[in-house]
UniProtKB/TrEMBL annotation:
Coiled coil: none annotated. Its EC number is 2.4.2.3. SUPFAM superfamilies: Purine and uridine phosphorylases (SSF53167). It comes from Paenibacillus spongiae. InterPro entries: Nucleoside_phosphorylase_d, Nucleoside_phosphorylase_sf. Pfam families: PNP_UDP_1 (PF01048). This is Uridine phosphorylase. CDD domains: UP_EcUdp-like (cd17767). The lineage of its organism: Bacteria, Bacillati, Bacillota, Bacilli, Bacillales. It catalyses: uridine + phosphate = alpha-D-ribose 1-phosphate + uracil. Residues 17-213 form the Nucleoside phosphorylase domain. Gene3D superfamilies: Nucleoside phosphorylase domain (3.40.50.1580).
Amino acid sequence: MSLLPILRVDPKDMPELAIVCGDPFRAEIISQQLEQVKELAYSREYRTFTGEYKGVRIAVVSHGVGSPGAAVCFEEMVKAGVKTIIRVGTAGSLSDRYKTGSLIISTAAVREEGLTRQLVPIAFPAVADSKVTDALYEAALEANAPGAVGKGITLTMDAFFSGVVELPHAIYRQAGVLAVEMEIAALYVVALLRGIRAGAILALDGDSTAVDEGYDPHRSIVAEAVDAEIRAALGALVKLAEQP
Ligand SMILES: O=P(O)(O)O[C@H]1O[C@H](CO)[C@@H](O)[C@H]1O
Ligand SMILES: O=c1cc[nH]c(=O)[nH]1
């Protein structure tokens, strides 16, 4: 079979279990936890590695920033036969309880991005797979994160910095949404429409309302939280490999 047109990977090389993340450099960091690692392709923002973790074959793929580009990646992964995807990302806090360094497992995503309404009406819910969520939560509790571990609804946006229109963060904070990022709604909608399992874990890198003033995701507490979420995601995939 020919290569996937955008990821530039041979579908037969893609395992059924995968981790995705925005940053191609983070994909490389995650791949360093694997044995028998191979970098299959680096095409646009999409960097694909495969390897084994505790005897389980997994892929690690970067999807870039924003839902439209990320959805292209998820769709091609599904076409290649991937059956379980976990997103390992960063997010801004919307909650007084979970601050920088905390980990959030996303049980569902508010669809404030523009992509998924072009796939299915906006009333359709973007929800995670419950087995993936449970496996992630259990693994996160044991991952020694520098902050608290929580699970709940997250917000997916297209805008990162604000313009002249007020962003809806305060409304969703009031509604109990825990964190904001930019791709989970796309992941959950694509997964639900194509019949695969998906979940997501997020390391909080600051207060979402402060990104316009000075966003700094390069602090050591964020790096520690990202390390912890990587351990949690790998542990969850091993558990999920036993529960197809
Ligand atoms: O940490 P990652 O996976 O890149 O995710 C978050 O970081 C990016 C913004 O800086 C967006 O892609 C957002 O969703
Ligand atoms: O989308 C994002 C990602 C990280 N941190 C934020 O505040 N927003």
